[in-house]
Amino acid sequence: MNRLRNQLNRIDTIFNRMIACFVILVVMVVLIIGGVLTIQFSYNYNRKIEELEQYRLEYLEHKINNLFEESNRIIQEITSLGNKDKEIQSFLYHPMKNDFFKAVNLLKYLQTLSTQNDSFVSSLELYVQNNDVWISTFTGINYTDEDSKKFKAELDIFGSEVQFQGSKRWVSDRVMKYSMREIPVFSVTSGYPLYTEEESRYKGYVIVNIKKEVLQELLQDYLTRGLDAVAIIDSKGNVIDAEGNVAGFQAFRNSNKSYMDELLLGKVKNNFYTVKDHIVMSQPVSMGDWTIVNLVSTKEYFDETRAIQTRIVIISLLVVLFGMILSYCFARKLYKPFHTVMSRLLKAKLNKKARENEYYYIDRAMEELYDKAVEKEKVLNDNKNIIKSDFVVRLLTAKLSDKKSMEDKLKFLGYSSEYTWNYVLMIKVHPKIYKNLDEIGKNLIIYNMINYFDNYKNESLQCLSADLFDGKVCVIVSEIGPGKEELKALRNKFTDYMMMNFSINPIILQSSNFEELGSAHEAYLSLLKLSEYIYFLPRAYFIDANELGDRLKEQRKTMDCHYETFSEALVNRNLEVINKILKDFIDEASSLSVATNYLNGAVLKYLFIYNYYMRDIMKGKNNETEHFKDFNDQYDVEDFYYWFISLIENTFDELKKVESNPSQTVADLIEKVIMENLEEELSLEFIAEKVFLSPKYISRIFKEEKGINITQFITDCKLKKAAKLLIESNMPLDELIKKIGFGSSNYFIKKFKEKYSVTPVQYRRNSIM
């Protein structure tokens, strides 16, 4: 018995224990992993198939969207043709019913465009409503005497109404018939002008007919298995087209109507369902109310998995065997130092002492590990500030949301998780001040700001701070309970500290309170939004999101900046009106009722109007570059106001020295615009836009100064130029009329005869004689 006990004692060594543990561990891990993988394989494989099919479905949707995008490109090319050819523009936008020649030119252009895109375009059609003409590459040119509303009602081009790039489109499935020919197409229809929302203002319609066979080919190319089906369904549940196992698709749809309805309405997460041995998924098409629905049979997939599962079992057994061998080798190598000592002790027949020595060596190894752990802990403590800063940044950027991780990190940093009343403070050094500091000054200020909050801690309040660069520090302030007196005291003490040590008054933005630290990200985002308005809140050194945050939720996109009134006041040298407009703008901006992008643009627009007008008035003396440089140096919108008013006052004083009549200057500027654009179809609106004044105002000023209305002046200038061209060139009369910008030859001849008492032809003949 004693002999058996001694033999067992010899076997019971650390080495044998290690081998046994390693072998058992490897076998258990492999068996568990193999079993779990085998059980979950079908599920995971099914998910992979869903991802693959979804990717392919997105690719199909991309190809279909390309058809619509190319169609819209063609529509834009056709509608922009008028910008390149004034005659075509007149035909498209003005009544010219008898001009068959322009209709033929349009047809030729449509035929060329259709040929260039014949890979997917069946035909192109254009309905010019003003001229009651239907131009089609399929049927040619047709005039209609019907009322336009009745004619449009008979067309089948107004199917589903959609929005594309801010303008209205119609998509319809129809069959085009002409003589004995029938061609199924999808029609994309747009009214022109493109960005007109009211149908009553449309001048006509452009129709791109896409070959239906192109869409069918895309669906056929998508299918890879005989049991699958793919279909396009509109919002009303009508099947636009279907390919593959259509009968199986219809049967599935009839038996699972509720699933299909939810899928088409977009109520399904990830846009797919798994029903028995089928996967059905959808992908909406960006233009139109179409949805692509794909029905995938998983029967073939599961048949393929059986062979794979068999291979997994074989591989698992091989891994077990390999793990046992590896365990032996690893334990032998790890035990080697002890084995040498144990061998010597065994020779001395000191079994008990040998076992004690084994454990002694293990104990010494544990002590060494402990020493290393202490060293690591020292390194962590030395870098606490870096870890704290990273922790704050991760909270503000929503990269840390696990509550347990937050509590562990707070405990490590020496902070309590019992402070449940939290705020985010964003402290900014004004950009104009921060920009003028050198690098050492910037680092010194930021370091002292962070150090102040790190050292500010009492029983009711604690602070976590981080440098967010560019003169911005964020602090998460936590209190035991509600009550802002301690927080207010913190703000006041910090402001006094900055003024006393650096003569800087920092800007402090304070968020609404929140209970969970994980909500710091939302509070930080609200402060970022508020910080955009610092320029428009003059001398505001404390901004509370509780007081101002609600205003940002009900913002308007624009406001009335009275640009025309501002321009007229510049012309009239009316500083009182200019002063009122700018003050009203500042008051409106400080109410936070308008987005900052618009406000910044409005400030620049005022400066641009001033520069544009003064460029002509000052005749090259106006330094725009210097103005924009001075503008960028302004501290806030209030400084901008005083600088801008001073600039305008100085300009008016300078103008008084060189001019006696401002209205004469405006009239001269209007005359200059007319002479530079004489070949255009000039109008009051066109000229007013050029000089940034209202049409009524320029009409009155010009009449007062020149003694003639603008329209008569334009006509006289055009006639003088025509008379000069008649004498100095051999230009045909039609070309001459077009060159000087007359819309009608009869009107030109009438006006010419009124002015010169002869027709243009007689005038040219008389000049030759």
TrEMBL record:
Q: Which InterPro entries match?
A: Homeodomain-like_sf, HTH_AraC
Q: Which Gene3D superfamilies has this protein been placed in?
A: Homeodomain-like
Q: Could you tell me the keywords of this UniProt record?
A: DNA-binding, Membrane, Transcription, Transcription regulation, Transmembrane, Transmembrane helix
Ranges of residues in domain HTH araC/xylS-type? 668-766
Report the transmembrane regions from the record: 21-43, 312-331
Q: Which terms in the Gene Ontology molecular function aspect does this entry carry?
A: DNA-binding transcription factor activity; sequence-specific DNA binding
Name recorded for this polypeptide: HTH araC/xylS-type domain-containing protein
* Keyword Nucleotide-binding annotated: no
